[in-house]
Amino acid sequence: MDTRAPVDARAGALMVGLCFIWALQQIAIKAAAPDAPAVLQIGLRSALSALLVALVMWRTGQRPDWRGHGRAGALVGLLFGAEFWLLGEALHLTTASHAVVFLYTAPIFAAMGLHRWVPGERLHGVQWLGIALAFGGIAVAFARTPATGGATSLAGDALALAAGAAWGATTVAVRATGLSNAPATETLLYQLLGATVLLLAVAVLTGQAQLRPTPLALSSIAFQAVVVSFASYLAWFRLLRRYQAATLGVFSFLTPPLGVALGALLLGEPLERAFIQGAVLVLAGVVVVSGYPLWARRRRPR
Fold first, then answer.
1. Are 180 and 28 in contact (CB under 8 A)?
2. Looking at residue 5, what is its pLDDT?
3. What are residue 5's DSSP bridge partners?
4. What is the dihedral of CA 197, 200, 206, 211, to 10 degrees?
5. pLDDT of residue 1
6. DSSP conformation letters of 124-184
7. Whole-number Å distance between alpha carbons of 160 and 101
8. Among 228, 202, 236, which Cα is nearest to 28's?
9. What is residue 253's predicted lDDT score, i.e. its pLDDT?
10. Burial of 51 (0-12, 13-18, 19+ CB in 10 A)
11. Residue in 273, 223, 271, 280 with CA at minimum distance from that of residue 253
12. Which residues pair with 191 in a beta bridge?
């Protein structure tokens, strides 16, 4: 029996604020890219955030269980790093608006992976219809995206979609291993360490380690490290411990529309009709897949 509280007004307001922060993540990376390549930004922010999480664990007496969770931690660290590597490369080739929508297909990939690997996470027929709806939206959005040139490209959108798949795989890896019972701070630490090692290595090996310490670049990295990867993630985990996860998850679907709006407002990104149509279908499919368990529970007789 779930003893967590239903989402109240305070939690709802906090979730809206978190979604706004998560939507700004892609905007900040894209805006500062001329001064700091996206991969370098995310690698540096991951290193700073890992240090902050380690300090929190030290102050609260927590220690990572390297022996029990080391292999699983390495796996989720690799997947988390791959997600942001793909996202960083995508932001060089497409708009932040496109990137945030395709990144948030992650629940679709997670649901399919959990259906295969985690007992008790079987998908229902309605959810498969939601998956079909989401992939139909992806096809619509891709259909009129140019292969190269312009503000967006098919390659950039495909990389953002692959980042969403990597995020979904990270969720499956956490749920299917001993990390499902580990403290949230420990799991987050593994993810941040993996991203730090992978992304900084990629930045050096691919010639993307040049940082121009402009106010925009430094403020972007600081915002991502302190606000996004540290404070917002810890706030999210604390909400999950207190409130019903399914309802909180539905709130998180505000992030893509906010990202699209902020991309147009702050970066002047174009909003193509085909992309908007596809994005609506994608988000509708994600809501069906992720919201069905909540709907089904409410329909059960008490």
1. no
2. 72
3. 243
4. 180
5. 46
6. PHHHHHHHHHHHHHHHHHHHT--SSSSS--HHHHHHHHHHHHHHHHHHHHHHTSGGGGS-H
7. 8
8. 228
9. 83
10. middle
11. 280
12. none
Q: How confident is the model at residue 257, as a pLDDT?
A: 93
In whole angstroms, give the CA distance from residue 294 to residue 249: 10
Report CA dihedral (193, 19, 37, 72) to the nearest 10 degrees.
Answer: 20
Low-confidence ranges of the chain (pLDDT < 50): 1-2
| Among 192, 163, 223, 231, CA closest to 36 | 223
Instruction: Give, rounded to a whole angstrom, the gap between the first and last alpha carbons of the chain.
Output: 12
Q: Pick left, alpha or beta for residue 267 (phi over 0 → left; psi -120 to 50 → alpha; otherwise beta).
A: alpha
DSSP labels, the chain: ---PBPP-HHHHHHHHHHHHHHHHHHHHHHHHTTTS-HHHHHHHHHHHHHHHHHHHHHHTT----HHHHHHHHHHHHHHHHHHHHHHHHHHHHS-HHHHHHHHTTHHHHHHHHHHHHSTT-PPPHHHHHHHHHHHHHHHHHHHT--SSSSS--HHHHHHHHHHHHHHHHHHHHHHTSGGGGS-HHHHHHHHHHHHHHHHHHHHHHTT-------HHHHHHHHIIIIIIIIIIHHHHHHHHHHB-HHHHHHHGGGHHHHHHHHHHHHH-----HHHHHHHHHHHHHHHHHHHHHHHHHHHS--
CB atoms within 10 A of CB 88: 25
Determine the pLDDT at residue 150. 66
Q: What pLDDT does residue 201 have?
A: 97
Measured CA distances, 41 to 44, 98, 119 (Å): 5, 19, 38
Residues 6+ apart with CB under 8 A from 144: 272, 274, 275
pLDDT of residue 121: 79
Q: Identity (one letter) of the amino acid at 173? A: A
Do 151 and 90 meet the contact criterion of CB atoms below 8 Å apart? no
